[in-house]
Amino acid sequence: MAIPGVHLTRIGKGNFLLEPLRSMNIRDQGTLMQDIVAQVQNAKGVLLYYDLHDLPVIDPVYYDWLDKLARTCQAVNIRMICINMQPTAAFTLSKHLAGKPAFEIALGVMD
Amino acid sequence: MAQKKEASEKLTALFGLKIGNISGQLEETGREFFCADNRLMDEDEVADLSSEFVQLISGLLGSKDPHKRTTPQFHALEIFFSGLAQRMLMRGGNVEDVVRYSQRLQYSLISALERDSGIAFTQSRSVLLYFAQLFDELIMAIFRTYLSERENTLRAQEEELRATSTPITQIWDGVLTLPIIGTLDSSRTMLVMEALLSRIAKDHARAVVMDLTGVKNIDSQVSHHLIQMVRAVQLMGSDAIITGIHPEIARALVSLNIDLSGVTTRASLSDGLKEAFLRLGIQVSHKAS
Predict the structure, then answer these.
(1) How close, in Å, is residue B128 to chain A by CA atoms?
(2) What is the distance in angstroms between the Cα of A35 and the nearest Cα belonging to chain B?
(3) Which has fewest Cβ within 10 Å: A2, B49, B59, B276?
(4) For chain A, what is the domain count?
(5) Closest partner residue to A90 among B204, B205, B235, by Cβ?
């Protein structure tokens, strides 16, 4: 079942790739989180890659969404790894980030 | 108004003349300036330059209103002088030569016209004033070009300096090193951070070793920037390792209450590289004899 605003693709045994689309509405966080986690969980997924490739800036609102999604994933034993963070996004986020984020970070999908 | 009309009439009369033949006289001026000692142009180029100038000035003086500074004819003349200034500066000439050449061109033009037309310009203030104003404007165009060329040179030098002050090197596949030497102020830290993050994205670097051996002083703002840089590197998905922290810097970091708990530090650059290799599973060993 397709989730509006995101592409969620299975990329290996237990691994999923989440690509946010421009139409994703993070104001409706509750439903969105629930749908994403449900779909990964139903497929017995353990790892969720969140692709930040198209995101030039991560502001506090977007960071809050990432943080909540990561904590929701943790609650059901799914690891969330943000990948392909852009230099501009890393720069802006490093400015207002206090402490370690709830999600893991990697350069790209791990081998 | 009457003066302007008088000048226009005189100019129209003047440029009813065939002035193509003054090109040779203007060439002499060009040769004197550009072909003599400094050899900025060859004789053919000077000949082309003079005939182009004669064409353009004929176009302007033969136009409806030669006093107007918004006509395409005047604009073409302006571009001619800007281009000349640019060409001379690129060939190592200086702006003074171009300005002096323009002034001499003005005198040569006036005397050539005076001779050809039989009108004594020395008794006609309006014509002299017209040429003085026209050439003043053209000299302004030369200066504008000179300033913009200088600005371009300074910008290029700044870029070069920026690149050399942040020598980010890929020492191994996926391992970047960044030796920081000299004073680390806020603006430089920002430049380093910008260059480093772009390089991580480009090279897909998994570890970055930042060597502070050459940094002697650090202040509160810079230490915060440094930590921000480490955090940004980590957010890109790379491991940041800081090496070569001097005891004075360590003491400053502690007294500034900088939290280094999330930062990997090593005593020297070689230790930092070993740590980076270890994290990437790279083993470097002596060749078995």
Answers:
(1) 60
(2) 26
(3) A2
(4) 1
(5) B235
Rounded to 5°, angle at Cα A69 from A67 and A70: 65
Q: Which domain holds residue B68?
A: 2-162
Task: Check residue B103 and give its pLDDT.
Answer: 86
**What is the tally of structural domains in chain B?**
2
The answer to whether position B252 is within a domain reads yes
Stated pTM of the model: 0.60
Considering only alpha carbons, which residue of chain B is nearest residue A101? B235
What is the interface pTM, i.e. ipTM, of the complex? 0.80
Q: Is the pLDDT of residue B120 over 80?
A: no
pLDDT at residue A10 in the model = 92
The CATH number for B40's domain is: 1.10.490
> Which positions 79-98 of A are in contact with B (Cβ < 8 Å)?
82-83, 85-91, 93-95, 97
A29: left (phi over 0), alpha (psi -120 to 50) or beta: alpha
Cβ distance A91 to B193 less than 8 Å, yes or no, reads yes
Q: How many CB atoms lie within 10 A of CB B257?
A: 8
Confidence of residue B16 (pLDDT cuts 50, 70, 90): low
What CATH number is associated with residue A87?
3.30.750.24
Q: Which residues from chain B sit within 8 angstroms of residue A94, using beta carbons?
A: 228-229, 231-232, 235
Tokens of B84: 């000349």
Claim to verify: residue B21 and residue B153 sit in the same structural domain = yes
Of A85-99, B22-36, B55-69, highest mean pLDDT: A85-99
